[in-house]
Amino acid sequence: MATSFHSGFLIFVLAIFILVQMTTTSSTATLASMHSGALETLIVAQDGSGNFTKIGDAISFAPNNSNYRTIIKVKAGIYYEYLEIPENKPNLMLYGEGSNVTEIRGNRSVGDGWKTLYSATVAVLGKGFIARYISFINTAGASKNQAVALRVDAQMAAFYRCAIDGYQDTLYARLGLQFYRECDISGTVDFIFGDATAVFQMCNIYVKLPASGQSNTITAQGRKNKDDIGGFSLQNCSVLPSQELAASNASVKTFLGRPWKTYAVTVYIKSYLDSIVDPSGWMKWSDGDDPAMYKVYYGEYANYGPGKGTQDTRINWPGFHWMEYEEARNFSVSRFIKGDEWLPSTSIPFDDGI
């Protein structure tokens, strides 16, 4: 019986050893296959239940220059990280569990010595980037001046049901074709700015309480030259006060935009404009500017709500347009960002017309 027990014990130990080896090998093989492109999903969880505990580590691990989609699933949590998706990491997707539970936070600002470009909590340079159900936040506050939550320098970038939250310069839509669907975007001064060619569909635009003495400007589009293609098109969006602004007794003016650069292009189409929008609608970049020097294209079509304005109240700049249907169609997904050619591959819903 001693011999039988000894043999059985050795077999048991050997079985445990083989099981451990198989588990380790399987885990290593899984990550290796992910890196080769055979599997394309990585999991980030702060409790250690995923492949990584930090989003930045998952981005670093993702394959370079891949033609395949790599999905980084980010479990619920507040991630205090500064992230860059570089050009050599195309086709990445950050997939959260909900913009109210999966958050990426930072607090860099011009007020604390950072240049606007480098204040971003998350910067996207990789082509074909997608984000779903996740928040990008800069918590620096209104007194810290420019403080970017999300900077996008990427072609064919798309965002679905995300939150982009800050104060001044929240979203730096800098370059490339971009699409935002059912996102919540919050800020105070110039909080959607840059020279991307971007369409925002069914987004909530929340205007917050600015620093003392400031007015709110939703957009600051930056097209520099007549032949450039940049511009912002806001379709079926809602411009609303944040709870903080709504509860405030402060007298704060809010404008649909102001021209960061001479040839700025911005249109609002079939959007709800709350009473917080100033009757004039649009604001000069600087008080001393002569609007006649602007070569802007500012347009409105079929907007509604108490802030929609009238021909008697809106600005009378040469570049302002009460658009007709055909004119507004030029700013649709299909025409303005050629969305029919690339958005179907993202699986994000979109309306190709107006």
Structure description:
This protein is α/β, with parallel strands linked by helices and 354 residues long. The protein has two domains: 38-187, Pectate Lyase C-like; 208-346, Pectate Lyase C-like (3 Solenoid). It has five helices and 26 strands. The protein has helices at 2-36, 55-61, 243-247, 325-329, 333-336; strands at 41-44, 70-74, 77-80, 83-85, 92-95, 102-106, 122-124, 130-132, 135-138, 150-153, 157-160, 163-165, 171-175, 177-181, 184-187, 189-194, 197-201, 204-207, 216-221, 231-235, 238-241, 254-257, 265-269, 272-273, 297-301, 320-322. The strands form three sheets. Strands 1-2-5-8-11-14-17-20-23-25-26 form an eleven-stranded parallel sheet, with helices on one face. Strands 3-6-9-12-15-18-21-24 form an eight-stranded parallel sheet. A seven-stranded parallel sheet has the order 4-7-10-13-16-19-22. Helix 2 links the parallel strand 1 (41-44) and strand 2. The radius of gyration is 24 Å and the shape is globular. Residues 1-39 have low confidence and may be disordered.
List keywords for this structure.
alpha/beta, Pectate Lyase C-like, eleven-stranded parallel sheet, eight-stranded parallel sheet, signal, Pectinesterase, Pectin_lyase_fold/virulence, Pectinesterase_Asp_AS
Quickly give the structural class: alpha/beta
Proportion in helices: 10-25%
Per the CATH scheme, the topology name of the largest domain is Pectate Lyase C-like
The CATH class of the largest domain is identified as Mainly Beta
**Distance from first to last alpha carbon:** 84 Å
Keywords: Aspartyl esterase, Hydrolase, Signal
Organism: Asparagus officinalis
Pathway: Glycan metabolism; pectin degradation; 2-dehydro-3-deoxy-D-gluconate from pectin: step 1/5
Pfam families: Pectinesterase
